[in-house]
């Protein structure tokens, strides 16, 4: 069992990546000073004009590398791999971090979800007039979104927003376990091999992987409920008094982690 190569490089912090101080396209784009290519939009224009436009978000493919830059080349050769000096500058700018969070919220909405709390990472289904059912169906049907999600999670980690990854992953796990939503072999494979490992914090990665393994095993009819999801996110956010003994039951069910979640390479 081995972690896919791109995930291994991500977890190691891209040790072979170099930094070009003259390459700042991502910083300029997220500063609302550069238009993405090929769509010729500023970041604020994308947020204003594309949120809720599901056909555009589904059919266009060049924007995702701009909205979620990572230290890897993507399929859009008019985009630029994220540079290390850009990471530092962007992380230090609250306006840019806010825009990255808005990009994440736009994609969650496209996937039939909503960010309940940016602080804790708590995610839930979209509310009316949105129709989460149709968005879930599209996510199941359009498997290229699995690759997009891997990029999104890597990007969030780069910018100190890794708690959002945990909220997303455990929401999907809850939907699979409690409601049999998003529970196709393709999504489970991407989740178990790639998405779960897009967490650089070893403790959090093990915690999420343990819960996923428990659900996959289905021992004693184990179900990861919404209450358990809320408790797990509260624990990650340092809030324990509001959930009583639920957190302890989650820990007992998951057991002690002994190694990193490792899934077969694709």
Automatic annotation (TrEMBL):
One Gene Ontology molecular-function label: opioid growth factor receptor activity
Keywords recorded for this protein, A-Z: Receptor
Organism the protein comes from: Lyophyllum shimeji (Hon-shimeji)
PANTHER family: OPIOID GROWTH FACTOR RECEPTOR (OGFR) CONSERVED DOMAIN-CONTAINING PROTEIN, OPIOID GROWTH FACTOR RECEPTOR OGFR ZETA-TYPE OPIOID RECEPTOR
Record-given protein name: Opioid growth factor receptor (OGFr) conserved region
GO CC terms, sorted: membrane
Assigned protein family: Belongs to the opioid growth factor receptor family.
Keyword Oxidoreductase on entry: no
Residue span(s) of domain Opioid growth factor receptor (OGFr) conserved: 21-216
One Pfam family here: OGFr_N
Cell inner membrane among keywords: no
């Amino acid at each position: 069992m081995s972690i896919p190569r791109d995930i291994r490089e991500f977890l190691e912090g891209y040790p072979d990546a170099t930094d070009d101080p003259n390459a700042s396209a991502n910083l300029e784009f997220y500063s609302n000073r550069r238009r993405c290519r090929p769509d010729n939009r500023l970041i604020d224009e994308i947020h204003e004009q594309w949120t809720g436009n599901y056909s555009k978000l589904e059919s266009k493919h060049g924007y995702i590398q701009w909205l979620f830059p990572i230290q890897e080349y993507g399929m859009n050769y008019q985009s630029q791999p994220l540079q290390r000096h850009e990471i530092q500058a962007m992380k230090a700018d609250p306006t840019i971090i806010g825009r990255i969070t808005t990009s994440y919220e736009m994609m969650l909405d496209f996937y039939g979800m909503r960010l309940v709390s940016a602080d804790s990472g708590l995610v839930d289904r979209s509310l009316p007039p949105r129709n989460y059912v149709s968005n879930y169906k599209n996510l199941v049907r359009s498997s290229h979104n699995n690759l997009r999600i891997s990029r999104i999670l890597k990007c969030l980690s780069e910018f100190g927003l890794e708690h959002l990854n945990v909220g997303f992953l455990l929401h999907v796990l809850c939907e699979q376990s409690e409601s049999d939503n998003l529970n196709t072999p393709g999504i489970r494979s991407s989740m178990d091999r790639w998405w779960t490992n897009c967490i650089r914090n070893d403790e959090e990665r093990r915690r999420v992987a343990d819960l996923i393994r428990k659900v996959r095993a289905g021992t004693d009819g184990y179900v990861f409920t919404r209450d358990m999801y809320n408790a797990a996110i509260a624990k990650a956010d340092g809030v324990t008094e509001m959930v009583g003994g639920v957190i302890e039951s989650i820990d007992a069910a998951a057991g002690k982690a002994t190694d990193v979640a490792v899934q077969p390479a694709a």
